[in-house]
Specification:
single chain, 593 residues, alpha+beta, five-stranded mixed beta barrel, globular
């Protein structure tokens, strides 16, 4: 192997073009592949920006050609030569019009045959790819999202700095607090029996910063939650975190629309129209069955409760007697696509999300097949068809439940299932909206008490403040989520800055004064010294980049993701530690056999 000597890179492979033809340049990287055609050798050189073809022939210096004959996949090289126009051009790479005619070549590192080909389009299992993640990251389709993520962070920093924000790091070893997912705990060696928690978010610290006189804060913060994994969830993730003083929710939403507009333009060259639609939580749930509605297609949910008022059809009558409602979707013109078998599968989807079943009517030219219409009066049928604008070729899908939210949630999932399976979604669309006016509380059957839907510091709507303790289920929050294509990309709220109201909030949540002080004492004390009105929000950076690239999982935009069991296959984390380390931390293991 050789050293670089006096050679230094002058150009990146993916950034040269016809404008550079005739220039002498030095490039470096890894050999993606090499082809010896007998008397002429072609090699594709790959660096972080792309691929450039290298050429060696009978006019190449003999010692350079001899070295080129040795080139294999993943050899690391640096070379100098003249850029020229290619005789046989290609559009498969961005540099397909040019090639480098090499006059000097140095092989800096040789490589073994990798366990899989380093190219896109290979069929390799995730376990092998993640075990050799350093090789997988060389493939363009895996490499490029990480580069784009870096550019996103750059734009975010520039935007916030342009708008008078101060970037401030908050601690990653903090006090464990309730009202969240399970914490990752870190034992303290210096204080035996005491533990730090890794932050699930910088929530308390960013509020403290507002009380410290920093009007506008932001941070690209690493966060941790010990919870089960799924496509858009990892035990460690990244938030774009922000907090602002002397603002209301409209100010926060406006400044964040500006951020999205700049990001989509600079990264994707897409013009995003602002302001975004603002949709109350009740409307989102009622129309789409989700607090993160996908508005790229129709199939909206409709309330047909009044159609069946006084019905003798027992399942519907029982629901109405219990104060419930009946919701429906008209799958317009889809009778030829939704067979009885398909509808039965949709029924299973509805049951998975709490529905007792899925009633249907399939209106074809030949006949109407229905699970319930024979039990209805002619007037009820006519009123249902009119309410849903039903015509031949349509499929009507109904769910009834004493809890309208449960009925809408089940139909919302049916709606999404139909859209995904029948290509009703335009993947090129970016439909942004704000969901606002969330419930302040949600009741936990497991805990037997009211819980904060967001967190205990969320400001109630002014008109609901008097109901915080007496009627928590009727209270709404000054909270807002930014939703893109059916995915919650970020969210936040205005915060309580009145200590008396904060005490009432803790009381409504079932905190004793001692428990509240134990968990949040430093914040409660800070409020005594004057707190400006403030609010903020946080984005999931991983989700944001995933959505920008049209990926299905945040694992696709994280350099070293965890797998289903929380492990990281390349390094082998988590792993056992030796007895002395445990002894230093005063920890004894009590694992079962």
């Amino acid at each position: 192997m050789e050293t670089m000597g006096n050679l230094r890179r002058t150009n990146y492979c993916g950034e040269v073009s016809m404008a550079n033809v005739g220039q002498e340049m030095t490039v470096c990287g890894s050999i993606a592949r090499s082809r010896d055609k007998g008397g002429i050798i072609f090699a594709d050189l790959r660096d972080t920006t792309g691929i450039l073809q290298l050429v060696f022939d009978e006019d190449t210096p003999r010692e350079v050609f001899t070295k080129a004959e040795r080139l294999k996949s993943e050899y690391v090289v640096i070379c100098r030569g003249a850029l020229r126009e290619r005789a046989a051009k290609t559009d498969k790479v961005s540099t397909g019009d040019v090639e480098l005619y090499v006059s000097e070549l140095r092989i800096l590192s040789e490589a073994q045959t990798p366990p899989f080909e380093i190219r896109d389009g290979i069929n390799v299992g995730d376990e092998l790819r993640l075990r050799y993640r350093y090789l997988d990251l060389r493939r363009p389709s895996v490499h490029e999202p990480i580069v784009l993520r870096s550019k996103v962070c750059q734009v975010i920093r520039n935007y916030f700095c342009d708008n008078h924000f101060c970037e401030i790091e908050t601690p990653t070893l903090i006090k464990s607090t309730p009202e969240g997912a399970r914490d990752y705990l870190v034992p303290s060696r210096l204080q035996p029996g005491h533990f730090y928690a890794l932050p699930q978010s910088p929530q308390l610290y960013k509020q403290i910063l507002m009380l410290s006189g920093f009007d506008r804060y932001f941070q690209i913060a690493h966060c941790y939650r010990d919870e089960d994994l799924r496509a858009d969830r990892q035990p460690e993730f990244t938030q774009v975190d922000e907090e602002l003083s002397f603002v209301d929710e409209n100010d926060i939403m406006t400044i964040n629309e500006g951020l999205i507009k700049r990001l989509w333009k600079e990264i994707l060259d897409v013009d995003v129209q602002t302001p975004f639609v603002r949709m109350p939580w009740d409307e989102a749930m009622s129309r789409f069955g989700s607090d993160k509605p996908d508005t790229r297609f129709g199939l909206e949910i409709q309330d047909v409760t009044e159609v069946f008022r006084g019905t003798e059809f027992k399942p519907f009558a029982a629901v109405l007697e219990a104060g419930g409602s009946i919701r429906a979707i008209n799958a317009k013109g889809m009778a030829d696509k939704l067979s009885r078998k398909n509808i039965d599968k949709l029924g299973e989807v509805a049951k998975t999300y709490g529905a007792k079943g899925l009633a249907f009517s399939r209106l074809t030219a030949e006949a109407t097949s229905s699970s319930f219409e024979k039990f209805l009066t002619e007037e009820e049928k006519a009123n249902l068809y009119q309410a849903l604008n039903a015509e031949t070729g349509d499929v009507l899908l109904l769910v009834s439940d004493a809890d309208w939210v449960k009925a809408c949630t089940a139909l919302g999932q049916v709606r999404l299932d139909i859209a995904r399976k029948h290509d009703l979604i335009d993947p090129k669309k970016f439909n942004f909206l704000w969901v606002v006016d969330f419930p302040l509380f949600e009741y936990s059957e497991e805990e037997g008490r009211w819980m904060a839907m967001h967190h205990p510091f969320t400001l109630p709507r002014a008109e609901d403040i008097d109901k915080v303790e007496t009627d928590p289920g009727a209270c709404h929050a000054v909270a807002y989520d930014i939703v893109l294509n059916g995915v919650e990309m970020g969210g936040g709220s205005m915060r309580i800055n009145d200590p008396a109201l904060q005490d009432r909030m803790f009381h409504a949540l079932g905190f004793t004064e001692e428990k509240a002080r134990e968990s949040f004492g430093f914040l409660m004390d800070a409020y005594k010294y004057g707190a400006p009105p403030h609010g903020g929000m946080a984005y999931g950076l991983d989700r944001m980049v995933m959505l920008m690239l049209g990926k299905d999982s945040i694992r696709d935009v994280i350099a070293f993701p965890k797998v289903q069991n929380g492990g990281e296959p390349m390094s082998g984390a988590p792993d056992v530690v030796d007895a002395q380390q445990l002894k230093d931390l005063h920890i004894a293991l009590t694992l079962g056999e």
